[in-house]
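fold-stage: in
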Amino acid sequence: MKIGILREGKIPPDRRVTLIPEQCEKAIERYPHLEIVIQPSEIRAYKQNEYTKHGIKFQEDLSDCDILLGVKEVNIEELIPNKKYIFFSHTYKEQPYNKELLRAILDKKIQLIDYELMTKDGERLIAFGRYAGIVGIYNGLKGYNKKLNKNRLTPAHECHNMSEMLDELIKLRFDPPIKILITGHGRVAKGAIEVLKKAKIKEVSNEDFISKNFETTVFTILSVDAYCSRISDDQFDLDEFYANPEGYKSDFMKYAKHTDLYVACHYWDPRGPVIFTKEDARSPDFKIKMIADISCDIDGPIPSTLRSSTIEDPYYGYDPILEKEVGFYDDNSIGVMAVDNLPCELPRDASRSFGKSFLEHILPALMGNDPEKIIERASETDLQGKLMPDFEYLKDYVNS
């Protein structure tokens, strides 16, 4: 088998890579009949000499490869027919901006295998979520300090790696102390919590968060049952909530009255309630000054997330009275951080972690040891130019 690692071509540029140099070498040692080649790239976080030092060759034309690995969507004009591709395609939710991509994949008879669909026992096997949480909370803390003109942290993307970024936390100043609220309990939230603990910020219970004052900055984590309840009787049933979120409402305002910095790490189902409304944000009781929306659902559960922001310009302001974007420092504005490609700010660390999961869970399956049918279940299309049975629901989306 010959695997080709693609040059990332999507704009804005992405510096991440599926496998870093040492991991390529390790994969070949483990599977002697495996060959890995790299497509040259000027932007990749790991440079050409780092790969060649580990005996990995570079090759511009990857048409002789069996499997092609990327991170973000591959440009349509760069797709090679009759190949197996693995990347984050952002198509299985019928995202309108990638409809033409999926149509081209079918036309070119490409087997599309999506990282996001690689699961075992219902759990994702590979993701960048942890680094989204790590960078997202860092940007949120930085933004809060920035809004109050306190000591400023170096942007994450200007740090060489995560260790250098975390060293910046010593510059944080919260005077008076603040309360930080996190929604979510998955990889993203766990990444955010790592940073808060590194910053020596104390975790408190949900109840203490809304009932007590603290002499130091604190945070709490809300699970969905803490801020959602059934419309009919104010109770909560998790299985029912997943099956029928339309029957639930949000009680988030009881926390918003006591929160200074809100960090959104949750997964949101469009059928479910929004976290808070535009009317909530106008309330005199709404205390939140800064929102780090790591989930970044545009026109979704957080009305202040009007658009995604960029790594170079991550902040903007939301005026809850005018219901529109304003300057970050405008009076009465809520600060917003809504970068939608946060792991790109720490590409070396994020790539290393991602590659480790790839070696552990995905490569063995690609090499034929796949009793769980991980690759089959993650394949949206086959080499005959057809949608796989589990993804036939995408037919109307592709043909519309």
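fold-stage: in (second)
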Amino acid sequence: MAGTEEARRRLAAGGVIPAHPLALTPERRLDERRQVALTRYYCAAGASGIAVGVHTTQFAIRQPRVGLYLPVLRLAADAIGEHERATGSAIARVAGVCGRTRQAVGEAGAAAGLGYHAALLSLGGWNDASDDELLAHCREVASVMPLIGFYLQPAVGGRALSEAFWRRFFEIPEVVAVKVAPFDRYRTQEVTRALAAAGREREVTLYTGNDDAIVADLLTDFPGCAGGQRLCFRGGLLGQWAVWTRRAVELVDEIRAERARPGEKTSELLARGADLTDANGALFDARHAFAGCLPGIHEALRRQGLLLGRWCLDEREELSAGQMEEIDRVHARYPGLRDDAFVEAHLEEWLR
């Protein structure tokens, strides 16, 4: 099992962490060949980490009749290990963990046993819990595995979490990072202030999960404590980066260069961020409260040949009305966001 310092080291570099989708056959069974190909794609694209067992991997993998939580985590861990041995790289393995305490502790223990470094802890389903109950739950999971906090937007099952909650959460020694995804600028700033107030800004890495403000988050210095202290996001843990990942890595490299030596590219990068938000709106189906986000991601990967289709475990999950037309529009409008040539050049290698 990876220790807290190892998890902290791997996540401190920031970078691109895609949220791994689930590859299925037309019969809605696991397509192991393409599941592994996706992991190889993310590794080859330059991802600094990969998150598995999260929303894009579909929560239904945990259902007893499906039984795919451990198999998909194992496939990804094996493929990441293969890439690390071949290249000498170090990729953070992040496991999505959710449910009540018994379930979450069990998932964290299983992931740790497979060599995962940190648990991305969802607090979905805890909407009526007090801060004390939430923090007790977090500490129980942290006793098994290092934690990445997760501020999920209320529109898809999250809840509002106070600045006071986040300050106490950051005081948990095993917290190594946080994914900030409330899709709300005020709440995003509450998290950065809480991290600074807890005095853990050098130990806990900020990752954006705000798919609607990726570039803005990565370019901005956010307020910390009184006295002018500023904090910055080091990377993103994003469903958007499950597609066109090579371009995402290149984008983050450009942002880092601009932050190191500010010049004339900030406006250009912000404009590209607006393009990315437009594309995300189509892929994630923002128009219909994100109802078609999973098949939207799958459609982008299908067009590149990484997936065979848009199938989800729940056959009712399909593109929303008008979503395909929106995907067609952004696909044509923003060719520079796509990494089609990179995928075409390596697809057979990843599918071996």
